[in-house]
Amino acid sequence: MDSMRDRFAATTTRLLDEDPSLAVVLAEISADRFEQAGRDHPDRVINVGIREQLLVGVGAGLALAGLRPVVHTFASFLIERPFEQVKLDFGHQDVGGVLVSAAASYDWPAGGFTHMAPGDVALLDTLDGWTVHVPGHPDEAETLLRHAVAAGDDRVYVRLSEQANTSPVKVDGEHFRTVKEGRSGVVVAVGPMLDNVLRATEGLDVTVLYATTVRPFDAEALRAAVGPGPAEVVIVEPYLAGTSTGEADTALLDVPHRVLGLGVGRAELRRYGQIEEHLAAHGLDAVSLRGRISGFLSLPEGGA
């Protein structure tokens, strides 16, 4: 299976051929994947070098000129380092574009903490008007990227990951999908967390919702899943723990409820390790999730 970043490059290259209003802005990262596209469209594939503030500023400038920019680098260099430019050049100037990240929370452990950005979605939550897609499979990444590119002047963040679920789910860029139904609680699995959540909840009497578009948050789907309440909800996200608990609280404002947010912890892990070791350290592997979900929902770990 190709990676989400491979699929991003292949899909965007095709879109450059199809849509003369599309432009790609890079900061060295993934530049090798766009070599042919750069030769074919030298005026619309721009590599600014290792200058991330300029990366975002150029993207916004292209938007002001009437193009639809796709701006790409690692999440820490796309959202965190040039955050002022994201806030002002896109938000304050009220122009649209597609920010596509790679290697977010801990997808390249050897890069160290400088290349990790588990707080990216939470940081974007401080700004108005951003749609956030978190695909869990390369097929979903392609669907959501095409959706983002075609989204007029909207501001869209597509968060790619080296982690991927075994099989894709049909996604539409808006709604959560019900992948399992039960009566003893609702677990929302975001993007690449789905496989581990399904393994963790095997034999448990819970509903599992799958979310690949987390902003706007699909309040209607969550309300439908919990019913009249009282409700118990667990949200498992591949980024900072608790990022979406406020969204769930708002969605269930008139329903008695409890919400547990599981995700990446705030404590820095100072050893490189492997992705699987980071998952386990943050309690996001299937075994840890089963214990944490069962404990919160007061279900026996052996099944209910």
UniProtKB/TrEMBL annotation:
Transketolase-like pyrimidine-binding domain: residues covered: 2-168
Entry's Gene Ontology molecular function annotations: magnesium ion binding
UniProt xrefs under InterPro entries: PDH/Transketolase (IPR051157), THDP-binding (IPR029061), Transketo_C/PFOR_II (IPR009014), Transketolase-like_Pyr-bd (IPR005475)
Domain of life, source organism: Bacteria
Coiled-coil annotated spans: none
Cited Gene3D superfamilies: 3.40.50.920, 3.40.50.970
Pfam families: Transket_pyr
PANTHER family for this protein: PYRUVATE DEHYDROGENASE E1 COMPONENT, TRANSKETOLASE-LIKE PYRIMIDINE-BINDING DOMAIN-CONTAINING PROTEIN
Designated name of the protein: Transketolase
Organism expressing this protein natively: Streptomyces tsukubensis
